Protein: AraC family transcriptional regulator
Organism: Nitrospirillum viridazoti CBAmc
Amino acid sequence: MADPFLIRSLALTFSDGHRLHSHKHEWGQLLYAARGVMRVVADGVAWLVPPAQAVWLPPGAPHTVEMRGGVAMRTLYIAPALAAATGTMPAGCQVLGVAPLLRELILHVVAVGMLRADKVDQARLAGVLMDRLAAAERLPLSLLWPRDRRALALAERLRQDPADESDLEALGAAVGASARTLQRLFKEETGLRFGEWRQQLRLLHAASLLGTGLSVTQAGLEAGYSSTSAFVSAFRRRLGVTPARYRAPISAS
């Protein structure tokens, strides 16, 4: 008998630092935080999910989730046939902008619990949701992680302290590789020069801090920027919007 459900949902609350270890789902997953920030790692890529964004994980994609600040997670599981039939969802993982209408739809579906194909009103609601997901903005909130053990050790060191101002020679000495080797590894394995990778890491870290309620000035300083103006300029240039977009807190429903 065919599965009658189009969409299933789940609402959970997690404390700061909680980690969901690597797992996967047979259905596609839309991860949304009504409050807090999630760091999702899938296929060697780190995806940042601050408030007003969600991340799409296609069926079968192994992933881990780390919580930054208290997180009110609202999850929708979308039947593979529904996603394929509508053609709305990306083939890979992707951060999506959550406009006010889409947010209300997500929260409403979570309140309903499950949407069935044999319930006319629920099938219509699922269709509206998929239409809004198709129209959602795709956002560049990701960072490819290097695979080489030395470059990975450096990347993890900077993830722990993005404001670290050590130059590449000093960082290389700490992980047992020359600056030249690390430059080559980052370019080959992440597609970015080390300086570009480091800047993206800082900006994503800042976006995460903004999502927990820090001011633009505080987030910029903690991410390693010497002035608010330099931070705002880099943020807008790289991510296409001002930092203020990521700061507005949204209360969980």
